Amino acid sequence: MKIKVIKGGVCAPKGFKANGIHCGIRKNKIKKDFALIVSEVRASAAGVYTSNLVKGAPVVVTKRNLENGYAQAIICNSGNANTCNADGIAVAEDMCALVKSVSGIDATDVIVASTGVIGQKLDITPMREGINELWNGLGDNSDNAAEAIMTTDTVKKSISVEFVIDGKKCRMGAIAKGVGMVCPNMATNLIFLTSDVAITPEMLQKALSADVKSSFNMISVDGDQSTNDTCCIMANGLAGNEVIAAAGRQFNAFKKALNFCTVYLSKMIAKDGEGATKLIECNVYGAKCLRSARVIAKTVIKSSLVKAAMFGSDANWGRVLCAIGYAGEAVDVDAIDVDFLSRAGEIAVCRGGKGVDFSEETAKKVLSEDEITININLNIGNGNATAWGCDLTYDYVKINGDYRT
Amino acid sequence: MKIKVIKGGVCAPKGFKANGIHCGIRKNKIKKDFALIVSEVRASAAGVYTSNLVKGAPVVVTKRNLENGYAQAIICNSGNANTCNADGIAVAEDMCALVKSVSGIDATDVIVASTGVIGQKLDITPMREGINELWNGLGDNSDNAAEAIMTTDTVKKSISVEFVIDGKKCRMGAIAKGVGMVCPNMATNLIFLTSDVAITPEMLQKALSADVKSSFNMISVDGDQSTNDTCCIMANGLAGNEVIAAAGRQFNAFKKALNFCTVYLSKMIAKDGEGATKLIECNVYGAKCLRSARVIAKTVIKSSLVKAAMFGSDANWGRVLCAIGYAGEAVDVDAIDVDFLSRAGEIAVCRGGKGVDFSEETAKKVLSEDEITININLNIGNGNATAWGCDLTYDYVKINGDYRT
Question: How far is A306 from chain B (nearest CA, A)?
Answer without folding.
Answer: 9
